[in-house]
Amino acid sequence: MIFTDYIFEFSSNLDKIALIDKKEISYKEIYGGVQKIESILKEEKVTKNDSILLISDNSTFFINSYFGIIKKGVICVPVNPSLSKNEIKYILDILNIRIVFVQQKYKNKIQNIISEGIKVFTEDSVENFIPNLKEEVVLENIEGDDTAVMIFTSGSTSKPKGVMLTHNNLIHNTNSIVEYLSLTEEDRVEVVLPFYYCYGTSLLHTHFRVGGSLVINNRFMFPQIVLEDINKYKCTSFAGVPSTYQILLRMTDIKNMKFPSLRYITQAGGKLANVFINDLLETLPNTDIYIMYGQTEATARLSYLPPKLINEKIGSIGKGIPGTELKVINKYGNQIKPGEIGEVVARGKNIMKGYFNSKEETVKILKNGYLYTGDLATVDEDGYIYIVSREKNIIKSGGNRTSPKEIEDIIVEIPEVIECAVIGVYDDMLGEAIKAFVVLKGTNTNIDEKYIKNFCKEKLASFKIPKYVEFLSSLPKNSSGKILFGKLKEMEESKREK
């Protein structure tokens, strides 16, 4: 089944509100926009092996284009509008793209990298499009295992990797999320995560599938307004990455607010420190809190922790979502015992088809029928999984292996700290030394390097105490709110070279 047909199976003719994007838009209106995009692509005689680039913020234009491209049976490639021109040109070239859907505001950015023969469609050109089909379109047979979406993610090499997700991948993951969140047509989510990010698109997929609704908010730079919009639009849910909740908890008036409509919130995109989870539990006593874990290569979601277990299993990512097998194995491929550390692997119909044009990279992580996530974890006696770190982020200092997350989780216990990132930096004696980057709330504070180190001394082994502490006004992040550890390491490398 084509993914778009699955999404709109019960809703294509509904007058019910599907989206609030400055104004209310019905399912019927959205689906009409989807069909218009499909008509454009029919006229352009694209085939299922063609890839269509989509450059847009969260908007009605994004949604219409995204589902319209998929409905035609071609491959939708949504990308971050803030990518550099070189990065966009790389994607255009390797996919041999000849059609681009781009918001008018970003058209000038790509003008100089669009070669002759590539057609560009903006909101205006879509709006003014009039079908002019003079010959019958040959219908292709679209299979469930055909690629529907390709999401580019940064990898170990300098070039981004294209994660190929099939119609079946998307359908399976959507069904699983709908099931464990118990989503219905009554649910409405406020969306601050970008749709080109798999966590963001999962919100779009699941709520449209059940006939629910979304509120688009592209203004997280004003976090208080984000909170006010939950009540203004009577949202039943909200989703965020760790930095989302850290900012809301320590830079807004959330603790003095009530959210009567808020049924649940979800968190994924990295480990949220226990101190912030406890803050959320105290701040939102009548709201279910779902701690989740996933990867783009798994079509977004791999696990969740049931809200009723959040106190008992705090810090855990839970177990596999419905239909997905998740386990932690050692280097011999055997499941670890409680307290041991191994790598998280996953198997299910949500696992990607592979990386585009990169068999070498694909076989590194798709082995023996499993996705090897690269995340290190331990398990408890009940089989609940606790992420320790990514293997590549482990700091090897003076013969000791240290997880940066353990140190970060201690430092953010300081109430004046909004967020923290810990990396390993070059050291002549230790090989790697531990360095903490800290963002403080406000400027009138007595927190300094000595305070941070002394605080850590009370709670951590001596070899885990940061050798260096640097205070920043903000941490470098991508548009999804994830911290760019690579940027911090580049900053340190450039300092050393000088």
TrEMBL record:
Under the heading Pfam families, the entry gives: AMP-binding, AMP-binding_C
Ranges for domain AMP-binding enzyme C-terminal: 406-482
* Claim: Ligase is one of the keywords in the record: yes
Give every AMP-dependent synthetase/ligase domain span: 14-356
What PROSITE patterns does the record tag this protein with? AMP_BINDING (PS00455)
Task: List UniProt keywords, sorted A-Z.
Answer: Ligase
Q: Which domain of life is it from?
A: Bacteria
Q: Which InterPro entries match?
A: AMP-bd_C, AMP-bd_C_sf, AMP-binding_CS, AMP-dep_synth/lig_dom, ANL_N_sf
Please report which protein family the annotation says this sequence is part of.
Belongs to the ATP-dependent AMP-binding enzyme family.
What name does the UniProt record give this protein? AMP-binding protein
Q: Which organism is it from?
A: Clostridium brassicae
